[in-house]
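W.,

You were right to be curious about this one. When I first looked at the sequence I had no strong expectations either way, so I just let the prediction run and decided to look at it fresh. Below is the sequence, 388 residues in total, followed by the output.
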Amino acid sequence: MENSLHFNTRCDDMSFIGSHGWAVNSHRDTVYKTTDYGETWESVGVLLGYLRSVEFLSKDIGFAGAFRNGIYRTSDGGNTWDTIPVLDTNFHGICGIHITKDSTIFAVGTYFRSALILRSIDLGLTWEVTNLNDEIEGLVDVRFYNNNEGIAVGTGFDGGVVYRTSDGGDSWNLVYNTGVSDEWGWKIDLTVDEKFTFVSVQNLTADSTSILKSSDKGLTWTEIRHPYTDIQGICFWDEMNGAIGGWRLPIYETTDGGVTWKEIPLGNANVNRFLKFDDFTLAGGVVMFKRTKNPTSVDIEDYTTNKNLDINISVDNSDVEVRINAKKPDQILYSVYDISGRVLISKKLEYLNEGNNSFNLDTQLKRGVYFLSLLNVEGIYKEKFLVE
C-alpha cells in the first residue's frame, strides 16, 4: 500500500463502517480516521491512557478502550470524545470491544489482572459489569455470533481460557482451558461464512503454542500447534486459508488449515488485528498492511521497530535485580522459569514510570541458567540470566 500510515510502535486495533475507518495507536495515544478504506489517514485526536481498542456502531457513534482512562465515547465520528465512568473497583481498562447486531456493546479487559465483562444497552452511556476475577486473571477480546451467543478470551490461573454466553451476556461459562501456564487467548476471528472460529494463543514462557478452532460457535474447541509463541493477530478467510501475526514477527499464511505456514516477506510486521473486506484484507501493525486476492502482491515501504523497554538484569549471589528503562509509562507482567521450562514466578504485575525502574525477583534461585519473560502491549521480551 502506498503512503501507508506509520504507527511508530503499531496499530493496536481498527474498526470500519463502510469506507469510514478508525485506528488507534497506543504509543502515541492517537486516533486516526480514514474515509477511503484505509488508503489515506488523518489524526483526529489524542486520548490519554494507553489506547488498546476501537469499535464503531455507526459513522458517528464509536468507542475506544484504554488502560488508565477506561472507555471513551464519541458521537461525532471521532472528532471529540468523552470519558465514560465505570464504577467498579476492579476496573483497570479495556482491551477488547464488540457490538452485537441489536447494538448491545460489550467490552472486556484487561490482559493483566482484570477479568471484567462490561455490557451497555443504551449506546454506551452506562455499563453493567460481570466480574470474573475470582475465576480467571484477565480478558483480552470478545466476539458475538448473534445477539445471544458470544465468547470472551483471556488468561486463567493455569492456561489460556475461552468463556461463552448463550443468554446475551447474563451469564458466562468456561468452555475451554489450554492448561498451559502463562498463556492467553488473544484475538478472535470468524471465517467469512462464520462457520469456523479461530483464536490466537500467546505464550509467555514456552517455545511453541497453538491456535484454537471451533466449528460450533465456540461450544467445543481443538488445538492446532505451531512454533510461534508471540502470535496475536489472526485472520482466516475459510477453514483452510488464514494468516497470523504478532509482536516482532512477520505475517505467516497457511493454505492447509494451519498445518504448515509460509512467511510473507514483510519483516517484523507486529500485527495485532486483521480486518477482512470483500476483496482485500487490512492488517494493523507498524504500518497498515493490505492484502489483495493475490497474497504475494503486498507492497510496503521500509520501516523500523521501536521498543519501549530496555532491560538489564544483575545478579548478586542469589539476589536478582531487574532494571528497566521505559520510554513511556507502561505496565508489565513477567514470569521467571528455569532451563527445564519449570515456571518459578508466574505473571507478576509491575507498573513502570517513564525512565529508570527496578525491582528484585521475589524468589531465591539456586545456581543455574534462568529466563525472564516479560509481556506488555507491544508483546513479549525474553532475557536469559545466570546465577552463579
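Here's what jumped out at me. The two ends are 51 Å apart (CA to CA). And, maybe more interesting for your project: Residues 162 and 263 are 28 Å apart (CA to CA).

Coffee later to discuss?

I.
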